[in-house]
Amino acid sequence: MPNNNKKTQRPIMALLDLLGQKWVLRIIWELRDAPLTFRALRERCDQISPTVLNQRLSLLRDAGLVELTDDGYQPTRPCQELGPILMQLSDWSKTWQNARKD
Amino acid sequence: MPNNNKKTQRPIMALLDLLGQKWVLRIIWELRDAPLTFRALRERCDQISPTVLNQRLSLLRDAGLVELTDDGYQPTRPCQELGPILMQLSDWSKTWQNARKD
DNA sequence: CTTTCTTGCTACATATTGTGTAGCGCACTT
DNA sequence: AAGTGCGCTACACAATATGTAGCAAGAAAG
Predict the structure, then answer these.
(1) Nearest-CA residue to the C1' of C21?
(2) Chain B nearest CA to A72, separation (Å)
(3) Which chain B residues touch A12 with a CB distance below 8 Å?
(4) How many Å apart are CA A28 and CA A58, to the nearest integer?
(5) pTM higher than 0.90
(6) Per-residue pLDDT reduced to its tens digit, B23-62
């Protein structure tokens, strides 16, 4: 799903490529609070197929955003810094949805 | 590509669904500075196929995030508020990529 | 009026990606 | 030895994206 463009070299492009893949944002979001096992994570993500879940987790691990510990999958330190940004997205989404209703 | 879950009702889920689709984040990103015509936008997005581009633009228009004006496609007011958040993402991505090199 | 641009966008065959179900191999517990 | 939960794989099927060609409409120029 990622495109293999020259621009992908640029950090923001690499990030947009990564986050733009189906389920990636959702997975990061679901891991925001507590570590989750593979199976628990599946349930949180509407029973996403294990094939894709594993594919995405591999990507995220390679990207250094997620790691598998004894407690389950959890975001790494850098990924946790992404948290506040996602919360802003969440806040923004609320006003966006309200505006939509008009 | 969006999942049709009950949770999708929640604003953040709707947003993650939307942004998690291929090209959506990229399109918003490319429109951040100036309006772009359909064709110009295509070029910026690595010659994305017009089929998908149109599909995504329709989604974004329905979502009230993008509109087509005489100057081309451009983000709506609410979408512009998304800009700063994306810039934070961009900043974060730089330190992330630096950390990755170790 | 007609030719020539450029616009947004569609058609469609092909390739890529995701889905859903079943189940394997491993480490524990009982 | 039998059961449980784990991460994860296999694979047939369905959904989605790609890439190329080109249409219809509008503006500009001859």
Answers:
(1) A49
(2) 22
(3) 29, 89-90, 93-94
(4) 13
(5) yes
(6) 999 999 999 999 999 999 999 999 999 999 999 999 999 9
Give the closest of A16, A29, A82 to B92, CB-based.
Answer: A82
Q: Chain B: nearest CA to A39, how far in angstroms?
A: 18
Residue A69, CB half-sphere, CA atoms under 13 Å: how many?
A: 10
Q: Which residue has the tokens 């496609």?
A: B73
Q: Which residue is nearest to nucleotide C16 (CA to C1')?
A: A1
3-class SS letters over chain B: CCCCCHHHHCHHHHHHHHHCCCCHHHHHHHCCCCCECHHHHHHHCCCCCHHHHHHHHHHHHHCCCEEEECCEEEECHHHHHHHHHHHHHHHHHHHHHHHHCC
Confidence of residue B8 (pLDDT cuts 50, 70, 90): low
